[in-house]
């Protein structure tokens, strides 16, 4: 990959983390590029149930000739030259293969949704803890420097005040082929459908805005859209916290591409129109208003919201790989313990997913979320 040249501009003090990719899903193309861009990571192997498929993936993505094609997941996980794995398998396969990776001492970057339920996720996290490996899910926008900049404003009581309301939307208009053939609409592969795929981002953004405090209840909206197999194509929910703050989200495979996030406090409000994937790879914007009111004749706002532009040399997915690799290197080289923040927020996201799904199944009743 041409992007590998970017590594020459950054020096590292330890040897790079050696990645294997378990599965050749479409999203693995993006992450293989991210591994190439991250200064402290290198891709050494791609595993598939078919060696020909692994070889095609390497060729089609112009990966280095040193990247090995491996003809089974087991062989890749048993490879002592692999320090960590990125796993973009269908969600129904996570329980088996993520545990297998941890048991073989491989640090785990796991595609979202992390599992079909918290009951399936817990053995994965337990295996990672038992074998001292780092776990992280691949929610990329969390690693964009814009996210940290926004957090700074939300944490300023003099400008934002107390959190009151969060509204998030992630939708895209899927074509007929997607709605018939994509793994995200197959009950035996990704049974959570749009809730697990797009809803994961909305729920994570709500938890992020609430500083990862779990809501008390989730209540799904009536009339979700399901396909003939019962997989969710469009849904939404309300999340309610004990102190009265509220989040509303909508996720869908049936509406135009939208990635909006609004966070409202007593003194300020934040708006983002591309919170999951920025409009531009190396530049991300948002607006923030504080102590706004009307002009004298109520013909406008005063003061106007401020526009913020945050730039980055590395795209957010490469920053994700870089941070994951930094943690892995600390374990490998310095005897550090795995960072517990990442499995904790993954589990909280999964618990809210579970509650929304339970609310749908129970006739849209409120479902309590227990940590």
Protein model, in words:
The protein is an alpha/beta fold. It has two domains: 2-141 and 317-341, NAD(P)-binding Rossmann-like Domain (Rossmann fold, 3-Layer(aba) Sandwich), CATH 3.40.50.720; 142-314 and 349-368, Dihydrodipicolinate Reductase, domain 2 (2-Layer Sandwich), CATH 3.30.360.10. The chain is built from ten helices and 18 strands. The strands form three sheets. Strands 7, 8, 9, 10, 11, 12, 13, 14, 17 and 18 form a ten-stranded mixed beta sheet that branches. It has a six-stranded parallel beta sheet with strand order 3-2-1-4-5-6, with helices on both faces. Strands 15-16 form a two-stranded antiparallel ribbon. Helix 1 (27-37) packs across helix 9, helix 4 (94-103) packs parallel to helix 5 (118-130) and helix 5 (118-130) packs antiparallel against helix 10 (341-361). The protein is globular, with a radius of gyration of 21 Å.
Give a short synopsis of this structure.
By secondary structure, the protein is α/β, with parallel strands linked by helices.
Any descriptors?
Rossmann fold; six-stranded parallel β-sheet; alpha/beta; ten-stranded mixed β-sheet; 26% strand; globular; GFO_IDH_MocA-like_dom; Dihydrodipicolinate Reductase, domain 2; Gfo/Idh/MocA-like_OxRdtase_N; 33% helix; 371 residues
What's the CATH topology label of the largest domain? Dihydrodipicolinate Reductase, domain 2
* Largest sheet descriptor: 10 strands, mixed
Order of helices and strands: EHEHEHEHEHEHEHHEEEEEEEEEEHHE
The dominant shape is globular
The CATH class of the largest domain is Alpha Beta
Number of strands: 18
**Mean pLDDT figure:** 95
Give the number of helices: 10
What structural category characterises the helix and strand content? alpha/beta
Family: Belongs to the Gfo/Idh/MocA family.
Domain Gfo/Idh/MocA-like oxidoreductase N-terminal: 17-136
Pfam families: GFO_IDH_MocA, GFO_IDH_MocA_C3
GO molecular function: nucleotide binding
